[in-house]
Amino acid sequence: MTPDPSSFAPDPGEPAAVNDLSQALALLARREQELAALHAGHEDWVRAVSHDLRAPLRHITSYAPLLRETLHGAGLQGVDAQEAEQFLGVMEQAARRLGSMLDGTLLMARVLRQRQPLHSVDLAQMAAEVRDALLAAEPADQGQAVQWRLPVAPVLLQADPDLLRQMLRALLDNALKFSRGSSPARIELQAQALPDGGLRWQVQDNGVGFDGARAAQAFGLFQRLHREGEFDGVGVGLALAQAVARRHAAGLALTGTPGQGCTVTVDWPAAPAG
Fold first, then answer.
1. Where residue 82 falls among pLDDT bands split at 50, 70, 90?
2. b or e along 206-224 (b: 16 or more beta carbons within 10 Å of the residue's beta carbon)?
3. Domain-located, residue 240
4. 18-33 pLDDT, tens per residue?
5. pLDDT tens string 45-59
6. Are both 184 and 69 inside the same structural domain?
7. Residue 197: helix, strand or coil by DSSP?
8. Whether residue 188 is found in the same domain as residue 248
9. Are residues 131 and 223 in the same domain?
């Protein structure tokens, strides 16, 4: 039986097949124009976040102390004064949190639009530099109580150095934050070669851990695995790490157990041929 030629006709709902080079070039040009428009809209959004949305936030953070002085100057005392102080405290805390969320949003936007060539990077050396920077911002007694285990030999991979540094900082900062209560706190970075030429590296800590069933939601922007009052942060670190991993075609996984720590596993691809 001879098949009906109409059965091979393109579906009206699908784009027409490209049959020659001129059509392909025209389609590519249209796609480039659409992409350029999307990039322009993205830049406008970033400018709005960085400037326009911060203006009202600055008013809140600036006028809250003035309102507190006004209330004290008016002689407000007793229960009314305590309630007013509590309300102002909540307002100031929410404003600081919103500022941190704006900072995280801008950081994510920079990661998503950054286009830099890949270079050979020593993961071990960069991790040591990030560790030193984190410890410099820690109180002396807390920093000395952490046992760090980082690779001694060079661990080379191909990456955008700036993005990899941001990813390492996010992962090591999380490990430090969530293991502060452990005695002693231990943070380890280990790496091993994969059969396909890639590299698997892991950041492990012995901190508070989390319910492993909730691992998937941890990579969403502003998603947290612990209550807000327990730890600082607004839930940006793992989302940023995920974005950097995707930019490098790397895989990222998170495992943990309550009270036994957390492990972040990164499967970094092999360097492209040539």
1. confident
2. bbbbbeeeebeebbebeeb
3. yes
4. 467 888 888 888 888 8
5. 776 776 777 778 888
6. no
7. coil
8. yes
9. yes
